[in-house]
Amino acid sequence: MHDMTALLIELGAVLLALGILGRIAGRVGFSPIPLYLLAGLAFGHGGLLPLDASEEFVATGAEIGVILLLLLLGLEYTAADLVGTLKTQYLSGVVDFLLNALPGAAVALLLGWGPVAAVALAGVTWISSSGVIAKVVGDLGRLGNRETPVVLGILVLEDLSMAVYLPILTALLAGVGLAGGSITLLISLGTVSVVLFVALRYGRVISRAVSSDNPEMLLLVVLGLTLLVAGIAAKLQVSAAVGAFLVGIALSGEVAKGARNLLSPLRDLFAAVFFVFFGLSTDPADIPPVLGIALALAVLTSLTKIATGWYAARRAGVKSAGRWRAGGTLVARGEFSIVIAGLAVGVEPRLGPLATAYVLILVILGPIAARFTEPAARRLTNLPKDPEPVAPPAAERLDDTANTRG
User: Fold this and answer.
1) Stretch 278-304: mean pLDDT, rounded?
2) CA-CA distance, 247 to 71, in Å (whole number)?
3) DSSP structure class, residue 317
4) Tens digit of pLDDT for each residue in 90-145?
5) Which domain holds residue 238?
6) Is residue 6 one of the residues assigned to a domain?
7) Is the model more confident about 197 or about 251?
8) Residue 192 in 3-state DSSP?
9) Is the pTM of this model over 0.90?
10) CATH number of 193's domain
11) Of 91, 176, 264, 363, whose CB neighbour count within 10 A is largest?
């Protein structure tokens, strides 16, 4: 009874604190992610108010948070969107990987952390924050700009690449050899291909089977199916998060829209718990030794993201001002970087503090870069001011993303 009382008191205090921090972030106009991470640092081991009774519960909530993040992400896209983006922007995706993943891998190897940690840190520095970027684009009134579909295309490619990257990382962390890792990769690629094919061919049939006019039934079916598939995927070492992402892709139309509306509050709750849990597992005293490395890596990968956006927008025929805006918009890192670091912290303890400091820097620097990269480039290169307004369907979908994730 005493343990249950302590659990309720600790959980109530944590959730109340998260609600207050979320409101503060909303008032300021910034992402709440850095505040959630700081709250986790404050409540964790070595922090101001360590949690004991609720740590196991929070860990379970964090797992659910990752699954819901990926499910809602999958619900944002249709299979046709993903296939179309692959066909038109795959070269930009390759450039994005080379410019932003390799610096992270190189830093891990230079620090002597080993190849597995190098693969993990590569993912941390590679993937931009879809949630933060969607909110920034909406706040800056750029939903109709011509570079916005380019930004969305890069984010789509990064999100889809997680369906391949996460199983590889999971296999490496599990100590699977070359043969086992190859099998895991083949299973992952095969699963993604099958899901895309089935979603393209039979997406409406699947959606009709899941559909229900009763919100309670729809919530139970979608959430139950997601947790079931995520668990099976984890058993196959394909990653629970990837399983959830694929469920989201398979659903479309009114079912996807209804599921988004029902699950978004749950996603926000458990995602906040996930960020807190990551902070709980990081000792604040471990951050100062890696702060300089995190800052240098943040500056370097901010420049490489700007170069990525500039290149992708140039390929799409966007004018110079729009290229710089696209690059600055992509700078922010956030949820995926923390997800990846959370998976790999066991193989290299310093990876958690480094990722925490790195994300804290870039989730704050990201909106600033989005706002000021193009004006700075215009002053340095005498670029003409060019708003380039246009309203393609992709911009409308990013507007919906900003509403559901921001």
Assistant:
1) 89
2) 7
3) T
4) 899 999 999 999 999 999 999 999 998 999 999 999 999 887 887 788 778 887 78
5) 56-405
6) no
7) 251
8) helix
9) no
10) 1.20.1530.20
11) 363
- Contact by Cβ (8 Å): 122, 315: no
Closest CA to 342 of 355, 330, 331, 361: 355
Number of independent structural domains in the chain? 1
**Alpha carbon 218 to its chain's center:** 25
Bin 145: left if φ > 0, else alpha if -120 < ψ < 50, else beta. Answer: beta
Q: What's at 332, amino acid-wise?
A: A
Residue 46 domain flag: no
State the DSSP code for 383.
P
Helices (H), 33-147: 33-43, 55-76, 79-110, 115-126, 130-139
Task: Quickly tell me which residue has 């997601």 as its tokens.
Answer: 226
For residue 23, give both structure tokens: 């409101």
The SS3 call for residue 305 is helix
CA 233/CA 191 separation, integer angstroms: 10
pLDDT of residue 212 exceeding 90, the answer is no
Under the banding of pLDDT at 50, 70 and 90, the label for residue 385 is low
Structure-token match 């990968």, residue found? 301
> How many helices (H) and strands (E) are present in the chain, helices listed first?
16, 0
CA separation for the pair 52, 64 (Å, rounded)? 20
Residue at 232 is within a domain: yes
Q: Does residue 114 lie within any of the structural domains?
A: yes
